Amino acid sequence: MEKPQMMKAVLTVKEKIYLTPHYIRVILEGEDLSIYEAANVGDNNKIVIPKDKLQKIQLPDGPPKGASDFYIRTYTMRYLDVNKNEMAIDFVMHGETGPASSWAIHAEKGDELGVLMKAKRKPIVQPADWYLLIGDHTALPVISTILENLPATTKGKVLLEVHSSEDVILLQKPAGVEIKWIFNSNPGETAPLLEAFQTEEIPDMESKFVYAAAEYHTIKEIQESLRSNPKLERKDWYAFSYWKYGIAEDASAMERRAISK
């Protein structure tokens, strides 16, 4: 099987927008931005963050594995407009300890960010008449994208866990899809998203799909429940772990990849 084309470029900050107290949208621009035209909005990408903003970014020739002068992190492309020469990435603000959060907090116009993506056209979710979308604060960008692209006749429910009511965002969605916002000021320490999921009933209908993206332990529990649900076949759900509580992204990658299906 032919490997997907790797699209990569060094982009610069055009604008920074504070969506909520815990979300920053960074608008990127660059002469090479048009190379991402084959990418799907909502797909994950690898960003290359300089440890020192004065350090020129060197993009890796092969799969990104990190380097002494840079951090490699995974983020979702929120939108892309090659005609306007703009790409947006939404960052969760959780202080100065995380390199991506810290970079976004201090980002200024003209700052560089490396972006690597694979060209692919695989849909994020399978076609269905009814959806259950489950995500914590890290999954808000991808679930927002999914909702924007669902047919107007779609029915379903969304469980979204964010820090507080101040982080609730008006999302574009089909009228028949209900959003339940769940608040958790200590993500990873407690799991109200899991508790909310455990009270949900999967309808007994043929065309349905469940999508879940959240912290490692939460996703592990959700997966076990989905696997044992007699109303679901394996093709009816997808679950992915974006992060593991208390462990950096690169240190937990193998564990998270092993359960993400």
UniProtKB/TrEMBL annotation:
Species the sequence originates in: Pustulibacterium marinum
UniProt similarity note: Belongs to the SIP oxidoreductase family.
Pfam (any one): SIP
Protein name: NADPH-dependent ferric siderophore reductase, contains FAD-binding and SIP domains
Listed InterPro entries: FNR_nucleotide-bd, Riboflavin_synthase-like_b-brl, SIP_FAD-bd, SIP_fam, SIP_rossman_dom
Positions of the Siderophore-interacting FAD-binding domain: 13-116
Top-level taxon of the source organism: Bacteria
CDD domains membership: siderophore_interacting
Domain (SIP-like Rossmann fold): residue spans on this chain: 128-246
